[in-house]
Amino acid sequence: MKTEIAVNIRKGTKEDLPAILQLVHELAEFEKAPDAITNTLSMMEEEGFGKRPVFEFYVAEKDGEVIGMALFFVKYSTWKGAGLYLDDLIVREKYRGAGIGTKLFNTYLLEAKRMNAKQAHWQVLDWNTPAIDMYKKAGASVEAEWLDCKMNEEEIQAYLDKLN
Q: Which of 61, 148, 63 is nearest to 107 (CA)?
């Protein structure tokens, strides 16, 4: 592990969104899916800070530069109640292994506790062993029992077209 780096963890603002979107693109490169991103800055501005915000985030900042983030949103389970879903936890590559991801993860869990969440959820790719190790070290269960299901916009429309 690298030497721990001093960072400021704070609630993200609208002004942080360009840096957040850049981090998302870095993550897409890391996950070998650079062309999968369709999100834009204007979408994030509206969806995070518009009339009905659907996400929040914390940033890790070093010397005024955003070098990491944890983006999350409220989810609901009919079995358990309100929960918090961590969509992405990203640290710039050159700062990975210095404890910043753990600090962001801890802040996410403190937010879950603050809102009295009954569960905290997130996903991790099966080949991302550094992240899996961090989550296991924190005491998280990494489950293989549940399969993710999703549809993109085109798949939703194709399905709905079949209903008519």
A: 61
Residue 58 is among the residues annotated as catalytic for this protein: no
Place of tokens 């603002």: 13
Amino acid identity, position 110: L
Alpha carbon distance 118, 80 (integer Å): 6
56: amino acid identity, one letter? E
Span 101-123, pLDDT tens digits: 999 999 999 999 999 999 999 98
Domains and CATH numbers, the chain: 8-163 (3.40.630.30)
Q: What pLDDT does 151 receive?
A: 87
- The predicted structure's pLDDT at residue 24: 97
> Nearest-5° angle of CA 70, CA 4, CA 62?
55
| Side-chain-side CA neighbours of residue 54 (13 Å) | 6
pLDDT of residue 63: 95
Considering just the CA atoms, what is the radius of gyration of the chain in Å? 17
Long-range CB pairs of 34-40 (<8 Å, 24+ gap) are none
112, with CB counted inside 10 A (0-12, 13-18, 19+), is: buried
Residue 1: pLDDT band (50, 70, 90) is low
Name the token pair of 6.
């001093």
**Under 8 Å between Cβ of 6 and 60:** no
